[in-house]
Amino acid sequence: MSADLVILALLAGAANWAFRALPVLLMKREARPGGVAARFLASTGPAAIATLFVASVLPQLWPVPRDLWPLAAGVAATVLAFLPRRSVVAGTLCGAAGYAAAFWALG
Amino acid sequence: MTDQTKGPGFGAGLWAGLPIALGYFPIAFSFGVAAVRAGLTGVEATFLSLVIYAGASQFLALALLAGGAPVLVSAFTLIAMNLRHLLYGPALMKQAGAAAPRRLAWAWAWGLTDEVFGQALGALARGQRFSEAWMFGLGLAAYGAWTGGTALGAWAGGGALEAYPALNAGLGFMLAALFLSLLLSILTRAALPAILVAGVATVAGTLMWSGTAGILAGMIGGALAGVLRR
Lengths: 107, 230
Description:
The complex is a heterodimer of chains A (107) and B (230).
Chain A: H1 3-26, H2 36-61, H3 68-85, H4 88-106
Chain B: H1 10-16, H2 18-37, H3 42-51, H4 55-67, H5 71-81, H6 88-96, H7 105-108, H8 114-125, H9 132-156, H10 165-172, H11 174-186, H12 192-208, H13 211-228
Helix pairs in contact in B: 1-9, 2-3, 2-4, 2-9, 3-9, 4-5, 6-8, 8-11, 12-13
């Protein structure tokens, strides 16, 4: 195993651990309810999830749109499967199945 | 039997991690294939997944290693890509509440990837109690799929999933479907400004600069929109 690869992996991995774990371990004091920090943190979750959804579908829309019908089918299947029981697992699995079925049907 | 006073256990976390594992597997498999094609051994590819555990960073690491970039410059680039993870722990613990245990956070927080964070936050927003055992289960399902997928990809080489294009395509949509389901699960009138601003900022940042800049712009812009909301 090359020394450069080991050093690169250890530095990047240590930083990833620090980014993920240290804020949890060091954040001993709760943000004041209703304060700026509390509102920022409360909005971070919805903002992050919306960001990640947009970032995950954007490469199919720009710069060159591709597989738009499977994308539409996958989105529709996700929403329709989620709504009855509000199940994230059902929404995810049916969404992927819907996308795959449309991709296969359009060949 | 589930102990209701302690919140959901390890097994429930593993089950909740199933969609993430199914989404991670083909991406990790592709990484294993790409790593071997770039000249790494299967052990080296799996080592990168075990130690870095961040998808986009690992693909970039392959390009940097293959291009002969200086190791410190490469490391700084990979580290900068994952700055967004700084926000995940505090946001999760804010949702979990002041009494949430964090004694073992040094271990389970290693698994706080984008998808694990989203799944955990969605579960808490739907009223589930926080438990470190559940976080371990959720994180292990994702981590196992990531490292296992890499090892299998490096071992199998290219072409294994390409023989089943529809399956490959469906698995490729799995993470987008997961994020959409999570978004639906936390959708409220109060969260709408943060969600809309995040979406617009992500598109603008991506089109103007890069995908990484778009993700940072979306998260920070959306969170600031929540601060400004009365």
